[in-house]
Amino acid sequence: MINVLFVCLGNICRSPIAEATFRELVKKRGLQDKISCDSAGTAGYHIGQLPDQRTIKNAEKHGLKLTHRGRKLSVADLDAFDHIVVMDEANFKDVNDLYYKTKHKTPSADKLFLLRDHDPETRGIKEVPDPYYESEPFFEDVYQIVWRSNEALLDYLIEKHQIVKTEE
């Protein structure tokens, strides 16, 4: 089983929608027995809370139900997940620093990377923008970014790990 963790700051906007869209893509390809995912935040502001209501509303518009409860990234996550996919540079630095501090080495580019490293429309922008202080339409932009980035990420993981759908 390949385990993927999506990380943002508070775990109530970007990483929950990234987790939900990725899970949906995995399901559509029939790979639930091969790939799993979760999400976390680098800060503990929203531990135990459901995602932001605007994130929930936007997800529902796309047929996704968000039930994830906010949690903070833990040291145990660094070993439990094969890939840690971060939404922006500041949180990437925080995860990288935690990894270095606890593992005494820098994580590989295979282990820790930005989600938009896989965005076919990145146009040089490497971060998923944080919609928290923005209006509802901005949440749709974030959804579109994570959806297309996750499609490419899933293709990458299938190829990298030579994942083959189990015949039923």
From TrEMBL:
Active site per the UniProt annotation: 8, 14, 130
EC numbers on record: 3.1.3.48
Annotated GO MF terms: protein tyrosine phosphatase activity
Class of enzymatic activity (EC top level): hydrolase
Keywords assigned: Hydrolase, Protein phosphatase
Phosphotyrosine protein phosphatase I domain residues: 2-156
Keyword Calcium belongs to the record: no
Entry-linked Pfam families: LMWPc
Family matches, as SUPFAM superfamilies: Phosphotyrosine protein phosphatases I (SSF52788)
UniProt similarity note: Belongs to the low molecular weight phosphotyrosine protein phosphatase family.
Protein name: protein-tyrosine-phosphatase
